[in-house]
Amino acid sequence: MKDFRVSKDDELSLTQQLVNGICRWIEARRIRPGTRLPSIRQLARDKQVSHSRVIEAYERLVSLGILESRQGKGFFLAEPLAAQSDDAADTPQVNDASWQPLTQPSQDRLNLCCGWIPDAWREPQVVGFAIRQVTRTDPDSLFSYSSPLGLPLLRQQIQQRLERMDVRVGHEQILTTQGVSHAMDLLVRSLLKPGDCVLVESPGYPNLFNLLQAAGVRLLSISRTQDGPDIRRLEALLQEHRPRCLFINSMYHNPTGTSLRPATAHRLLQLAEIHDFHIIEDDTYADLHNGAGIRLASLDSQNRVIYVASFSKTLSGSLRVGYLVSSADQVRRLAQFKSVTSLGTSRFVESVVATLLGNGAYRKLLQRLRERLDKAMAQTLRHLEAYGWETFAEPVGGMFVWARCAPFGFARLNQVAAACGVMLSSGDAYYLDGQDSDWIRINVAYADDPRATAFFERLAAERDRQPGLKCSAAGDSGYSLSAAD
Amino acid sequence: MKDFRVSKDDELSLTQQLVNGICRWIEARRIRPGTRLPSIRQLARDKQVSHSRVIEAYERLVSLGILESRQGKGFFLAEPLAAQSDDAADTPQVNDASWQPLTQPSQDRLNLCCGWIPDAWREPQVVGFAIRQVTRTDPDSLFSYSSPLGLPLLRQQIQQRLERMDVRVGHEQILTTQGVSHAMDLLVRSLLKPGDCVLVESPGYPNLFNLLQAAGVRLLSISRTQDGPDIRRLEALLQEHRPRCLFINSMYHNPTGTSLRPATAHRLLQLAEIHDFHIIEDDTYADLHNGAGIRLASLDSQNRVIYVASFSKTLSGSLRVGYLVSSADQVRRLAQFKSVTSLGTSRFVESVVATLLGNGAYRKLLQRLRERLDKAMAQTLRHLEAYGWETFAEPVGGMFVWARCAPFGFARLNQVAAACGVMLSSGDAYYLDGQDSDWIRINVAYADDPRATAFFERLAAERDRQPGLKCSAAGDSGYSLSAAD
Asked: Which residue ranges does the record assign to the HTH gntR-type domain (chains A, B) (predicted)?
């Protein structure tokens, strides 16, 4: 525990300094529950304080539920630790597979289904540079409230980025939000009322289902196909229902990784016109896009599309910066709502993102990230094929492959994964009706980890041992399909 | 415009570098609308680029609405500037005096009624130190999503602070939010439904009125007296209505600056028990408190009080960190709602605040801030008395004095203020019914500015000139009252 010092000159008591220092040490080193803390004697010697100080500090931490004392054995990190008591006992009972990966300690297991890039791909020096620059040179961003629409400089940068994607809008049509979920919440609150009917894709994003269900909205589901939402099903639903809007991922759909075909996109807009509904285009994975791709917002000339995106998947999920694009009138109403419900977003983090967009660092970071993801995607698809997995589609980019490995259901996949040190999330939550699913969402950025490889190999071996089943190295997907049915 | 350089080696075009650089310069130097920009020739020479590059950049800025070109005279900062087009034209039409000061350019006028501390009182080195420390040492806070309840280390620090105020709660009873408004929004959404009836103080916080009205809730107002809400009026209302909750500031009420008397606090809790309603104690100004003071949350033993506070008034309004305290069950439900509606708060800014709380810097910063405010409060009360203003009460601390200067109504106050370079906000918005008010909220931190002094003097002189009216230097408040009626 060399990370901290205690001093009599500090205004905090020695005990409190010890308590704070130990907490920081636990957080910084990601100490695991059950780990034994240094003995009282040892810590007292290290920090040059009396034994009674250390005992007091340890006891305070026990009373906080952070440590536990085991008779005659010493003090141990409690299970659940304060950090994890949020993350396990206190975790909201949300019908959402994505929460588990968000909130469970993953340091010991490979989180193969998670929705973010690996630690090693993060670029702390790039983000840190912008943070230091804003901190040093922009005291207003450090201290002042933001204006209702969000930092003008950031909105101008976003406008330029949109223009490069052929989405031409004025800066008054852009509203910054605390991320995509916040944008969705503002939209749901301002566009929908209980009992309204909306269209969602299934499989789709579980947190969106939760948000809409919390708003008392009726959800109609459309299957996601390789080309986008199932247009026939959509047309049939539109004969009977009058939905207010359709929620969709155009590019790199979560969880299937599929992207809209141009003809599907065009037809969607036609249907939105004819049946008078809005399309809410969630482009969370926009910036992972490498090359040509279709966005409804770029095709739209009738203000049918409300576009939503964020910097959470590329820069940082912690900063909480996203935005939405709609008509100027709508944006003005949403800005009012944003102000009343949160006094606005953080000018500081918006200025950090604007700095990264303005100085070209974001563009370069994206280049590196896309190259890594493209490589990982190609490799993962090869591996999955070799190990006899079935993929829903071959994504042209992004982070996710939706795949299954017949004849195994999720329970067995998860057992084998756990034995290999891999954590999986069930695909069930991605279906609106929570149906049993043998599909899982694989994050390609983690798929070449040795633990993932061990998982794939062990599963293939297990299948080979089953009578009548054999894993072809060439990936006999027809075969595995029939075994799955 | 020495703040930036352009280079052919940059991946952005020279024109775009100019555009970005000029925008940063405008923001950093707070250039005022109508200011003439450097001539094309001069900027081209400074930046060693061709004239056509500068023309292109200026024209792009014109097309963005940031500059305007005046025939034969050059380029000028447009009115409204992009920054201010949000802040004026795009500003939500919110019935809230506090928005104007939030969003209007104030660099040229003294914002005497605003709700934050002066630039010169900010402590960028203290906040900057914590930001750099988190950026350098805590990559998880820089990149990862937060857990639903908020950063455990911050919640532990908050728990300790509450304990020093005699509010004893477990860490599972604390939920971090994006500030007090966000906390209020979560509470309103989870506790209230349209048609429910709630109690608010009037005068009171306009944004709270807006939030409750947006939620379709019926508002019953109770006058704020020097001792807290008018208990007789409250008792009378409780004979006829069944309110779900009462919203209140215990300490340093906004806008009157008054604090609860212990007997009032005790009676409020009794009434909440008898009539089965919750009290939502908004303690936004908690940390400006210097010495003894009463909180409902510290008296409460029956889970009647939900406590809400933030670091916006002391550390930074930009970081957006606040919290609420309630029963563990309630907090768990609110955490779920927080997750679904925003995927959680920013771990980065929470870690910055936890650092400042943990290393003692926040406590020292508060000490300095309180000393400044106490001095400013005493001086402002002296000045107001000398200039013949009537004060609603003599606040024991905090930021605000609620005052009026008979016989002048707001319109005349505002005219004189404008002539002295002072910006005022009308007191009307603080009343639930938007009644005409001659009271204004004075922020004592700005009251010794020469522009404020000029305003007070000029007003006193004007009163002296009016027949039958005379400004007594000793502050004959009975006299000015009679003139006002």
From this structure: 12-80
**Pairing status of strand A228-229 against strand A218-225:** antiparallel
Searching chain B, which residue's CA lies closest to the CA of residue A175? B86
- Strands B322-325 and B305-310 come out as antiparallel
d(CA B145, CA A106): 13
Verify whether the Cβ–Cβ distance B148 to A86 is below 8 Å: yes
Verify whether the Cβ–Cβ distance A342 to B178 is below 8 Å: yes
Main-chain phi, psi angles of B379, to 5 degrees = -65, -40
CA distances from B274 to B192, B278, B301, B304 (A): 20, 11, 14, 11
State how far the Cα of A319 lies from the Cα of A348, in Å rounded to an integer: 9
Residues B447 and B380: their CA atoms lie apart, in Å, by: 6
Residue B102: predicted pLDDT: 44
> B145 vs A10: CB contact, 8 Å cut-off?
no
> Dihedral of CA A443/A446/A450/A451: which sign?
negative
- Rounded CA gap, A98 and A399, in Å? 14
**pLDDT tens string B35-64:** 889 888 889 888 989 887 888 888 777 766
Say yes or no for a CB contact (<8 Å) between B90 and A149.
yes
Task: In whole angstroms, give the CA distance from residue A394 to residue A382.
Answer: 10
Residues of chain B with Cβ-Cβ distance to A160 below 8 Å are 16
Query: How many Å is the Cα radius of gyration of chain A?
Result: 25
Query: Once rounded to an integer, what is the mean pLDDT over residues B176-187?
Result: 96
Q: Is the peptide bond before B395 cis (omega within 30 degrees of 0)?
A: no
Partners of A229 in the beta sheet? A224
Query: Tokens 């704070």 correspond to what residue?
Result: A20
Contact B296, A122 (CB under 8 A): no
CA–CA separation, A99 and B139 (whole Å): 21
Per-residue pLDDT of B100-144, as tens digits, reads 444 444 457 999 999 999 999 999 999 999 999 999 999 999 999
What angle do the packed helices B14-28 and A347-358 form, to 10 degrees? 160
Domains belonging to chain B, first-starting first, are: 14-86 (1.10.10.10), 94-121+365-484 (3.90.1150.10), 124-359 (3.40.640.10)
Strand ranges for A113-252 from DSSP E = 174-177, 197-202, 218-225, 228-229, 245-248
Are A169 and A326 in contact by the 8 Å Cβ rule? The answer is no
Instruction: State the ipTM, two decimals.
Output: 0.76
| Interface with B, mutate which of A102, A143, A155, A333 (most B CBs under 10 A) | A143
- Specify the pairing of strand A67-70 against strand A74-77: antiparallel
- Torsion region of B259: left, alpha or beta (phi above 0 gives left; psi -120 to 50 gives alpha): beta
How big is the A-B interface in CB pairs under 8 Å?
A: 268
Strand partners, A175: A324
* Among candidates B144, B150, B156 on the partner chain, residue whose Cβ is nearest the Cβ of A23: B156
Distance, CA of B178 to CA of A394 (rounded, Å): 40
Are B407 and B95 within 8 A, CB to CB?
no
| DSSP-H helix ranges across B64-195 | 82-87, 99-103, 124-137, 139-143, 152-164, 180-191
Mark out the alpha helices in B165-218 (DSSP H runs): 180-191, 206-214
In whole angstroms, what is the distance from residue A6 CA to residue A21 CA?
8
